[in-house]
Amino acid sequence: HVRAVRGHAWADIAHDRTYKSPFKVPAPYLRRVAGLAARLEGVSGEISRIHEDLRVYGAHYGTYIEDDEAAAELDTLDLLLGLGGGRDVKLATKLGRLVNTIGEWTRAAGTLQGFAADRHRPARRELGKALCRIHPVRSPGWLEGQGHLTYAASEPEPDLEAVIALARTHQDRGDDKEASEVFRAAFEMDPTDPDCLRHYLEFEMYDRKTSEPARLAGPVIRTACERCRKQIEGGVNLFGAYANLAFFHLWLREPQQAFLALVKAVEKVNAAYKLEEVHASLSQLDRVTPGFEGYDALYRLALLGLAVRYEDAQALATLKGMASSQGGPIEGPVVILAGGTAPEVEDKVAGYGEIVLKAFEDFAGTLISGGTTAGIAGLAGDVGAARAQARTLGYLPRGLDPFTVNVDKDRSRYRELRGTDGKDFSALEPVHYWIDILTSGIRPTDVRLVGINGGQLAGAEYRLALAMGADVGLLQDSGREAVRIFDDPDWQDQKKLVSVIPDAATLQVFMVPGIPWPLDGEDRDKLARVVHDNFSKKKKKELIKKNKN
User: Fold this and answer.
1) Would you say residue 9 has pLDDT above 70?
2) Neighbours of 116 (CB within 10 A)
3) For FRET with 267, which of 83, 175, 232, 515 sits at 20 to 30 Å CA-CA?
4) Phi, psi dihedrals of residue 452, rounded to the nearest 5°
5) Distance (Å, rounded) from C-alpha 407 to C-alpha 414?
6) How far is CA 264 from CA 45, 102, 339, 462, 468, in A?
């Protein structure tokens, strides 16, 4: 309607009064008309963009909600549905969709079972999804669920989400031919819908055992990435949007962006089944050739997410098989020292050496860093050399070029070096040390990461630590990623991300496990007791040593 009114206004002014005018219109007036046309075109374009954004938002509304918001919303919907005698199909569907989203399949089925014969397609879709989750494949209950999905996906108004869910049921029962046809149908309905595109390409690559479909779909994948970002901007389908971006960037040969997207998906996940599906998809991609750079880090990250966020026993068992086989388990407390190692920032990072050494003066635990002599990794080596009670572990790729990287092989500095399968530093190293931490029985919430400066890889370390649940303290004004992360809309509001004054005493306090940051009155008292106890133990040791001499 807005565009129709705009068109009439343009026709009256620009066409009838200028081009059909009985007199020659002066040039200044023509310029004003042209300027008006440009402004109206801009308005038309903005209207179209708003319309598209609202369409994307509406299509995924309710597919993600924070835990506290979910509880409040469920209480409200339960109350309203009860007041209506449980017969309002739209309210029941909204409730069913929400509980399906958080993985409460039985509750969703119970809410929607009374609408099993209703013509409301969204209700049948949510009921079908729930039944296919509750019951074993091919069982009567599962077949009933598939029947509801078939109805919701049928003409004349097929529900796109139901079509994708139906395709996955065919895949679950091993009917790859039917799954391929339904996935293709969903893709043809909306080629740039992120869910449609991801599942279609994923199945095509899995079925053909080649990554060629992703290579050919590059431009379409780029458009789907834009739609994912619109969902994130609108605050809907957050886990799904980040997970889809992870796959899309992986397929576009952009491993760094893929890793960061999956890290955020792990941080945002609100139901275990979602990470299980991501892990299953990554497992299938292992069979395609040629493979994708960065795949191994994503595969391990999905397992880490399941183990950390949901204490998944199977994921933890798999991770134990990936942990370092030599050197024994990591012992707490654990501090990760991450940051800049590039030649151009080495002097700047080295300038924090005295602060770092003093902060670790009484540290007795495990210090993890990069295992080279460069930048922040070199500072960790300095700590290892000066503080005998600190067990320094270096994580680095086994395939490093010895002519371009100086590995710190001095055992007085790094007690142990642990290798990954990479040829250069990547996300594999931080993922690997988190596997070792977790499989050693250490809770991520008891881990501290101290960051100074840092480039893209250090930025990934900071974000991974936050997603795992660790406290991340970045030295104030130290530059690059240690500053930029506070302006990153994905991470800037994290409670466990803090800017630490570059002061040894402050840094020492931050590294004390079990003390939340920033400190309140009770925490300060607790810290004071810890500091006093440590001081007393230190003085006692000095006296014993003095008496022996």
Assistant:
1) no
2) 16
3) 515
4) -130, 115
5) 10
6) 32, 18, 20, 12, 10
User: What separation in angstroms does the CA of 351 have from each of 345, 347, 461, 501, 507?
Assistant: 10, 6, 22, 14, 15
With 50 as the cut, is the pLDDT of residue 212 above it? Answer: yes
DSSP 309-357: HH--HHHHHHHHTTS-SSS----SSEEEEEE--SGGGHHHHHTTHHHHH
Establish whether the linkage from the previous residue to 430 is cis, with ω within 30° of 0: no
CB atoms within 10 A of CB 95: 24
Model pLDDT for residues 389-416, shown as the tens digit of each residue: 999 999 999 999 888 899 999 999 999 9
3-state SS assignment for residue 260: helix
Chain position carrying tokens 């690059």: 480
> What is the rounded distance in angstroms from the CA atom of residue 71 to the CA atom of residue 73?
6
Phi and psi torsions of 180, nearest 5°: -60, -45
The dihedrals phi and psi of 334, each to the nearest 5 degrees, come to: -120, 130
In the DSSP assignment, the letter for residue 294 is: T
* 407 DSSP β-pair partners: 372
Mean pLDDT over each residue of the chain, to the nearest integer = 87
289-324 in b/e form (b: 16+ CB < 10 A) is: eeebebbbbbbbbbbbbbbbbeebeebbebbeebbb
Question: Coil, helix or strand for 547?
Answer: helix
Distances (CA, A) of 298 to 255, 327, 430, 443: 9, 25, 12, 21
State yes or no: pLDDT of 25 exceeds 70: no
Q: What is the Cα–Cα distance from 503 to 501, expressed in whole angstroms? A: 6
- Evaluate if residue 538 carries a pLDDT over 90: no
**pLDDT-derived band of residue 53, with 50, 70 and 90 as boundaries?**
very low
Confidence bin at 78 (pLDDT 50/70/90): confident
Write phi, then psi, for 193 (nearest 5 degrees).
Answer: -65, 125
The band of 519, judged by pLDDT with boundaries at 50, 70 and 90, is low
pLDDT confidence of residue 507: 95
| Token code pair at residue 226 | 């834009």
Kindly state the tokens that stand for 121.
């397609």
The Cα–Cα gap between 315 and 168 comes to 23
Whole-model pTM above 0.85? no
**Angstrom distance (rounded) from CA 536 to CA 549:** 20
> How many CB atoms within 10 Å of residue 28?
8
pLDDT digits (tens, 9 = 90+) for 311-354: 999 999 999 999 998 889 999 999 999 999 999 999 999 999 99
Rounded to an integer, what distance in angstroms lies between the CA atom of residue 530 and that of residue 153?
62
Distances (CA, A) of 477 to 102, 451, 502: 40, 11, 9
